[in-house]
Amino acid sequence: SYRMSALERGQPLRPKKEPPTVTLAAAEHKTGVDLQVDRPTGVIKGIVTGPDGKPLADAWVSVQQDFEAMVRGAIGERGPGGPPPGPEGESRTVMVSNEGDDAGGGGTYPPALTDAQGRFEITGLPHLAFDVIAEAQAGKLRGRAEGVTPDANLTIKALGVTSLSGTVRGPKGPAALFTVILEGPTQTRRSFTDGTFSLGRVDPGSYVVKVQSTDGNGQVQTVVAPNTPSTVDISLVANGIVVGTVVGPTGTPMPDVPVVAIDDQGDGRVSISMDGPPPTTGPDGKFRIERKAGKAIVVVLGVRPPVMKKVVLEEGKTVDVGNLQLPEG
């Protein structure tokens, strides 16, 4: 059985009624399946102003939807314009793809240019939540509004972008290799070496700056002002270590199995993000993962039902979770 849905430019279209379910037997061919959807007629319009509050002409305004919001809409979570969810316990497979660089492809929409009064209008949008971003003066000014749904009329204030730099020190001195994760109006994830980092074109606002490395983890909060370079110093706290062995249904060690350790949010939800390929078990089925101290969940990837183990990691200490046994099949 398959539940049918429709997408335009990679975005789900809002159904007018419950999407049809089609049941196929082996080698069966069915036609005549009708889907009734709302046309994407949403409009987001408004005014862009400069740092002085005056209307800003010739600013490019675009709408974007982050990957998480795109997947939420595609799998049918309730929300602005989202299709109704499936039955309890239903398994869904979602594929999000970029079909090319043509205008409007891959979930993008043509930008609008503000007029002499700073006004803009973007049409033909599905009723989903978007981030609206305005840029002017060759990228020197930028402003944004998040979670905007059609049909909205808003004002965006474009401020001067700047830079954020800093130093990173671990227990043994400057970190040799580390990853900086920037959370705030500008979001990015980049790797650096030799204990220093610098990020350009950062929007003004409040940020959490996180650092991950084999030397430890750390984070600071900071406020970035318009047109003013900002600096931070981050001290790393030694990682905790979790080890264990992945075994098959009969207890045989399983090599080359991907295993990750993620934050335990305490709400039963599992959210996994990776910077590069995940660690895998060795020839003897054993794994070793370093991550920040605190509550975590060890997850064996690629198996159903999922194999997970909750742990509490302490700075510089090792926790052995023993054998994690894969289900049959």
Distance between the termini: 22 Å
What is the count of DSSP helices, taking H or I runs of 4+ residues? 1
Helix percent band: under 10%
Shape: flat
Q: What structural category characterises the helix and strand content?
A: mainly beta
Order of helices and strands: EEEEEEHEEEEEEEEEEEEEEEEEEEE
Strand content: over 45%
Taking all residues together, what is the mean pLDDT? 85
User: In which order are the strands of the major sheet placed?
Assistant: 7-6-9-10-12
Q: Please count the beta strands (DSSP E, at least 2 residues each).
A: 26
Low-confidence stretches: 74-106
Q: Profile the largest sheet.
A: 5 strands, antiparallel
Rg over CA atoms, rounded to whole Å, is 24 Å
Describe the structure.
The strands form eight sheets. Strands 7-6-9-10-12 form a five-stranded antiparallel sheet, with no helix packed on it. Strands 13, 14, 17 and 20 form a four-stranded mixed sheet that branches. Strands 16-15-18-19 form a four-stranded antiparallel sheet, with no helix packed on it. Residues 74-106 have low confidence and may be disordered. With 329 residues, the protein is mainly β. A hairpin with a 4-residue loop joins strand 9 and strand 10. The chain starts with a strand and ends with a strand. It contains one helix and 26 strands.
